[in-house]
Structures are given as C-alpha cells and as structure tokens.
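Hi, here's the filled form for the chain we discussed.

Project: internal
Contact: R.S.
Residues: 91
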Amino acid sequence: MTGFMRRRLASLLLCGGVAVLGSACATKSFVQKQVSETESKFTQQMTATETKVRETSVAVAAPRQARAAPVFTSSATTALVLIARAGLGLA
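And the returned structure, exactly as it came back:
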C-alpha cells in the first residue's frame, strides 16, 4: 500500500467511525418520547385484552351457572311434588 492509499483508508475509517458513533447516541428526551409512546400503545392493548378476557369468562360462566342451578317454573315444581308424593306412597 502506498502512503496515499493508507491516508485515504485511515480517513475513510475515521469518517465512517464518527458517522456510526455520532448517529448512534440518543438524547434523553428522544428516549423518553419513544418509551412513552410504546407504553401508551402497550397499555391500550392490555386494556383491550383484559376486556376481552372478562367478556369471555362471563360468556363461559353463564351456561355453567344455568346448568348448575336450574330454574323451576310453577308447573315443573308441581310435577316434582307429585312425583315425590307418588314415590313416597302419599299420592
């Protein structure tokens, strides 16, 4: 390598290093802004997810409760009383 090529290579490496290192630094305000925006988006997504989970758990629990605690109408109650009496020999 000649002296000219070495100087040119050194100059190129120096300029490239300054460009890379100089542009890689972020200011405190830039980082705070980026974190704030990301946090806001994350909070919105979490709220939406929590709402969906809550709605799903209510939708899943409703049929279970309906099966666990049957609601008797007056005719169903009367039928049960008659069946019970017949089983006991009271009818």
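Let me know if anything looks off before we file it.
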